[in-house]
Amino acid sequence: MFDTIIKNAKIFDGTGTPHFYGDVAVKDGRIAAIGRNLTGGAKVVDAAGLSLAPGFIDCHTHDDHHLNLEPSVYYKLEQGVTTVIAGCCGNTCAPISQDFKADCIRTFSHLASTDFDHDARPDFASYLNEMDGVNYGPNLFMQVGHSAMRAAVSGYADRPLTPAELEKMKEHTRNAMEAGALGVSFGLIYPPGSYATEEELTEICKVVAEYGGTFSVHLRNEDDHLLPALEEMLRVAKNSGCRGIMSHQKSEYKWNFGQTKKSLAMLQKAVDEGQDIFIDQYPYSACSTGLRSLIPGDIHALGTDAIVALFESDEGRAKIRASMEKYYGVEPGGRSRSLRGRDPGDPEPLPPGRRGQDAAGHRRRARHHAD
User: Fold this and answer.
1) What is the reported pTM?
2) Would the pLDDT of 360 be above 70?
3) How far apart are the C-alpha atoms of 187 and 111, rounded to whole Å?
4) What is the Cα–Cα distance from 200 to 369, expressed in whole angstroms?
5) Do 75 and 62 contact (CB within 8 A), yes or no?
């Protein structure tokens, strides 16, 4: 006897083979049989005219930033996503240190709710233990954010780490990996991650490699200097022995579009030479990020209060503009073509009945453990 039989579905089995029509039987939460004219189901669902596929894996998300507000992650379940990889681009909601608490919160506050006990997350293991008590919808694999760790160790200091600070970073990384993190994520376009040297990235990845983990990276540059930025991370992967995922494979602005042919060739060459390298890519022609990404690192290093003060005067705004033009150059038709999608001062409320609701078939958070 099966728990459920889904009949007459247009089935896509996920292997790349053509679709076919048939029935799928489920027992104890698992697929028990696939065929035609299956019988013996306690519940029968007629899927005539509908498509059926395995749960999708969303390999690059920031869903961890929303768990305090909406643990069901219903918006992914409604798209058929049953597994998400979270903690990407260097920004995670832990660790949070007492020495640099304000800077730690600053790294994720533009994306996440800050309505939780900040003192309860001194390291990533504490964070994962806290999240063990949360019921979410999809399976959830977590990465530890490099920017979060750097903020906890040195704040927004625009300089290389001292040897002692680098050791603390490695301790945080090891703590996260032993607690079950999938790996480490880098957001090298965002401070304070952008202040890291190649040596720092390599040393962090060496620790991740000890546990059979993976790094993912939002490259240091994705437009005029895409190729040097990719070369840097290919060296990090090679010198650390760590598997790597180069996120958002793209080249921004029309004058750089042809660079992707070169970047893909570089990636293929690395794979041919034995490196374990992958990419991810979003399937649309726009990109989404915070406005803070347009503010150069030297301005970010001044601190939030100082940045706000600069924006409040003509002289201050001129200083920011000069820094932006020095860093980015003058790009007619480039960053001026931006569309504001969300204003933190007027947040969009969750739909009625969604917040805190349980999603059918909650799955526990999955942790990664090396064999």
Assistant:
1) 0.82
2) no
3) 14
4) 24
5) no
